[in-house]
Fold each of these.
Amino acid sequence: MARITAGVGSSHVPLLGVAHDLGKDKDAYFGPIFAGYEWTREWEKAEKPDVILLVYNDHASAFDMKIIPTFAIGCAEQYKPADEGWGPRKVPDVIGHPDLAWHIAQSLIFDEFDMTIINEMDVDHGLTVPLSMMFGAVKAWPCKVVPLAVNVVTYPPPSGNRCWALGEAIARAVASFPEDLNVQIWGTGGMSHQLQGPRAGLINREWDNMFLDGLIGESDRLRHIPHIEYLRETGSEGIEMVMWLIMRGALGTATRALHRHYHVPCSNTAIGHIVLEPAG
Amino acid sequence: MTGPTDIHSYLAELEDIPGTRVFTAKRARQGYHLNQFAMSLMKPENRARWKADEKAYLEEWPLTDDQKAAMLARDYNRLLDLGGNIYFLSKVFSTDGLSFVQAVSTMTGVSVEDYQAMMNAGGRSPQGLRSKKEGR
């Protein structure tokens, strides 16, 4: 049977992709950020996941204003890096796992989560930056990826509670997939940042670390944080952190932290990264 | 359920944050064509046409005069007021060759150098910027 063996949380700032692609990852600005991912790169080499369920948000790349799905799952064979205005990133195509993706999609709908199915799309920095951070420069990504896109752009996005519950349903779906697969779930985006208006540049180190603390152990208090708290405390784009709760919800009643990293700033953003395993 | 169960009080709270325009349905409707225009710049052939003649390219889109003027002036705060969303507008400033820091700093009333220095020093504190009503 397939099983979720670990959860990874990570920011997905586009500038990290630029720094990675231009080989600036060891300079004075980016060095301390990338250093916090070295542990994870070694760990991933040992873990050899078969599939990553990668929770992210599309930043006006695959989805424009025509259609705004709250939760959408990628069931395609493969995905190309999106052209976000400066040409596509020169990273490998992302290979999907349509059998698992369709199994999860069907199971979730059966479980009363009304998923949107995506059969064709390009994937933007929200998905490819975490892959670069965790796997580095590679000719091909070392595993398959099932993209799970969440609307955190047009209000209202899903509640933290709903995201957590979706994670729980994803865990049930994965556990009923007959093939023996080592599956990780990644929640990406955040941490505190605001990219718009006179309040742009907001960072809240204390709140971010409270959030990282809350992912560890038995507590499920994070699922009850209302949107307005993310907005007030972590900036308008800090709302992306609800996506980490899908990852956390999928890990079961308790977690253990294997690795943790926090750094300010990267571009306009606080970088957060955590590796968790189920401990329930 | 987390937070208010009534959509009206939920939406009212979103307007209580200083210096912030949350991308609500109202803004999404107002900015629909503005954001779709920005989205069109993901295609290299459209970027080339936009760069060759911005005004002519804008004329192909059903934008208001205010939206067109704000776009030509790259007045991003004004564009947010007129329904623009930052992820869509990012296609415009990326086409201009600006980074997020460079473009975002233009909305804050300080130079890009000062903005970057603020970020390097740990970013903007939320203190006093959480709520207009409560002034905290």
Amino acid sequence: MAEEKVQMTARKFNNNTSIIDIQGEINAFAENVLMDAYTQATSQGAKNIVLNFSELSYMNSSGIGLLVTLLIRANRQKQSLVAFGLSDHYKQIFELTRLNESIKIYSSEADAIAAAG
Amino acid sequence: MNDSTSPQEDIDPRQSAWSPPVSRMKVSDIPEGAMNLNVDGRQPVSPLQGFGQMWQKTFKVRLSGVEMTPAEVMKVWKDNFPKFQPPENRFYPTMSGLKPGEVVLIDAKVPPLPGTPSILPVSTGVLVMYADDTTITVMTPEGHPESGWNTFSTYEEDGVVIAQCQSLCRPNDPLYEFFNRFMGSSAQQDKIWIHVLVSLAEHFGVKEQVATTKVLVDPSVQWGQAKNIWNNAAIRTVFYLLAAPVRWLKK
């Protein structure tokens, strides 16, 4: 089986907000890494989770599927999920897949954190 | 980390595996024999726009003894995509094939009640959202029985090529949800993907069981999407066929 080519770390910004920094490639094999980072953010007490895509190198359709399951999990925990750092290409992919209707995209970390509350 | 406003500059050539932006599906080249209903002008939908419970279902088969790479197996799969479908589920790719942004028309027949023959017609289609050497993901339009994505992929595990179908979907409207929960539609859909994988394996001379995993991702329904029933492809296909004599008389 192919190995994951991604690293994610959850950074506590304040008592309500954690940022998940994504570095590398999101595909089907990134599931454990993403869910571990989410669990880490949740254990930090985050009510708002900010995804940082600035260092994303590639994402395929399975990667988008992982974001959907992450979003559902966050919604069920009454957490908000927002994103920043997406390239124009991945902003288009969020529009194509209509993920942008549920995960708001911001141009910078400061904007994303301000919107997340 | 930083407040970056200009993320990754290098363009990965794999980005061309994604469909260009599509707000409404366009059928420009209708394959012979396809009914072409309930697709043109419809918005593609994700698992987030449907009505019913969200399920992730994974079906996979080990192609033991097949001396090919996952990409070579996928090429065979793509080239024979309609052939591997069950007879009551006809797929009509355009002449361009299964390429990102292309529409695949589908004319299916489903059983009206559990255990009865597949006689209820449903004309619909899918958009090829993503296609690379080892993966194809299709996205359904409004009115399709499912709201979401189906991904067909090949990969290697312990030296054996695995072929996999994975759906991440909700039933699109309350009627489809009812049929899924109580009338056997979910099991019928499962049979389709199992048939596809068994046919693919048999193409390579392999007889293996299909392993199935089902995860209920979201047990709640989205009442705000109940209005999706307006576009229900099954209802519209039946009305279209019932109105055939009227259309014929008007000619």
